[in-house]
Amino acid sequence: MILRSNQSLGFLGETAAASYLISQGYKILERNFKKRYGEIDIVALDGKTLVFVEVKTRKSNKYGTAEEAITPWKLRVLIKSAQYYKLIHPNLPDSVRVDFISVYLSIDNKIEKVKLYKNITG
Question: I need a surface site. Which of 35, 53, 82, 114 has the fewest CB within 10 A?
Answer without folding.
Answer: 35
